[in-house]
Fold this sequence. Notes:
By secondary structure, the protein is mainly alpha-helical. The chain has helices spanning about 5-30, 45-60; strands at about 30-35, 40.
Amino acid sequence: MAQHELALLEEACRTRDYIRDLDKAVRDDGVMIPSSQGSRLHPAIAESRQQRLALARMLVTLQIPGLDDDLPPAGRVRPASGARRG
């Protein structure tokens, strides 16, 4: 493996660890957290989603199959009944 590929693999490993930390924060704190305007979605949810996308891109670049078998799947928002998808 070339030096630049090793560096990218190390970054992918750090990203995977970060995703685990974000997911743990959501498990510990709950999906909704208090704010000055009531409850809001935990910010770690959006960050976890972004990190999962970044990890997927790194793995594609390295031509490695997905490694998130032990990571819970990111939540998916379903469109409301009758809503059109664009």
